[in-house]
Structure formats: C-alpha cells, structure tokens
Write a structure and sequence with these properties.
The protein is an alpha/beta fold. It is built from nine helices and ten strands.
Length: 247
C-alpha cells in the first residue's frame, strides 16, 4: 500500500539515497536497517512530507505524494503518523494531557471527552496507572510508550517508528518491541520501523530492508539476513566494526 520508487536524495554533494525502491504491504512490520548515515530516517521522512525527493515517487495507496503541498499532507498525516526517536512530550502537562492534546486539536473533542479517549490509549500501551504523572517523573522507556499512545489517538492505519528503542535499557526496549508487534497483530496497523537494534530486528520484524551506499542491499525476511553470505550484511548482523580497532 506504500511504495518508494527509485527515490533519490542528496544534501549538497552528499548523495544519501541513490535509487531506493521498497514496497510496504498492509499490516506488516517492516524494518529498515543500515549503518548510521545510510539514509534510513531520510527515506521515511519523505512519506510524511518532512523531506521532498530530488527524484522518484512515493506512492501512498496509489497516490504520488512527492508533489504534495503542505496542506495536501494534512489528511495523510492523520492516517500515517510518526513516532520520533525522542518522545517530545510536554513537560508542563501530565501524561494524560499529553495524549489528549491531539484529540482536542485535531478532532475537536471537549476537554472531558479528550481525557476519556486519551485514557483508553494509555491503557492500550499499559500506561494508565501513570496517567497523572509528568514526563520528568518517568523513564525513557515509559515516555516512549506514551509517545506511541499519543500517535495512536488519530487511529492511524500506518505508523512510522524512528529508532524506537535507541537509548532504552534492554527490558524497556523489548516492551516497545512487543507493543509494535501487538499493534500489527491485533489492530492491523502497518509499521515501518527504522532501527539498528538487532534484538528488535530478529524479534518482531516480518520483513527487513537493508540500505547500503544509498541503495537497497537486501530485502527479505529476518532469516534471509541470518543466512546471507554478503560481507556487509554479515558485518551488520554480527555487530562488527568497519575496520580494525585500536585498543
């Protein structure tokens, strides 16, 4: 239902994407992986209009969004939301108020109705008991779950997760993994996950795409990466550095 077709993007002389083509099927959990600077986040930002491609197409249910105006993106962003690497919650609000904010702003709910709906989203991510706390009172992993709850207020069909487990302890990271998996299995939300977390990749992905030097190096199920003999893939899967290390 989402297609990136021959997408190119450069920033000055640096060519980040050099003809990337990826299809995303409805309801799947697709991981986009690669080394730092491989263009993972750059690619997904095109889908939401945060960046515009130099060339190529981005099809959302058959419609090319590459030429969309900012106004054109408004309805798309209600159906396809993004959870950023940093949770970006408002410290002056409770967690419940943070989740309720987009319900009032975009759906026009009353204060009471927005709080009730927000509480149901916090329940979905098992955060209802923290509803009256503020972001500074909880850890990074819990804040990430609240950010996901806030993204779900628009009842999206597609969610883009940008490095959702970066900076989290292993237990919190696995909680986020299970939440992403559950969203796909129980609500048929399509998830595009930018990540380099091997436990996440092999734990919850339906399919994995690896970017390397601006192109797709490998596209397949997680097992295809375990079985690959490609030296770049092996290096990534085994967590090896690019070259010799001085100790």
């Amino acid at each position: 239902m989402i297609r990136f077709i021959d997408v190119h993007k450069a920033f000055g002389p640096k060519r980040v994407l050099d003809g990337v083509s990826i299809d995303v099927a409805r309801g799947e959990v697709l991981f986009i992986i690669g080394k730092s600077g491989a263009g993972k986040s750059v690619l997904v930002k095109h889908l939401l209009g945060l960046l515009a491609p130099d060339a190529g197409q981005i099809l959302f249910e058959g419609q090319d969004v590459a030429g969309f105006s900012e106004r054109d993106f408004f309805p798309l962003r209600k159906r396809c939301t993004m959870v950023l690497q940093h949770s970006t919650l408002f410290d002056s609000m409770t967690l419940l108020e943070n989740v309720a904010l987009p319900l009032r702003k975009h759906q026009g709910l009353s204060h009471a109705a927005s709080l009730e709906a927000a509480r149901s989203k916090l329940q979905l991510v098992h955060m209802e008991r923290y509803a009256d706390r503020r972001p500074a009172d909880i850890g990074d992993g819990l804040r990430k779950r609240v950010a996901i709850a806030r993204a779900l207020t628009m009842e999206p069909e597609y969610v883009v997760f940008d490095e959702p487990t970066t900076g989290l302890d292993p237990i919190s990271a696995r909680h986020v993994d299970r939440l992403i998996r559950r969203l796909a299995d129980e609500t048929s939300v399509t998830s595009i996950v930018v990540s380099h977390d091997l436990a996440s990749i092999f734990g919850v992905a339906d399919r994995v795409v690896m970017l390397y030097q601006g192109r797709v190096l490998l596209d397949g199920p997680p097992q295809a990466f375990r079985d690959s003999a490609d030296p770049v893939v092996r290096q990534f899967v085994n967590g090896l550095p690019d070259g010799p290390m001085d100790i």
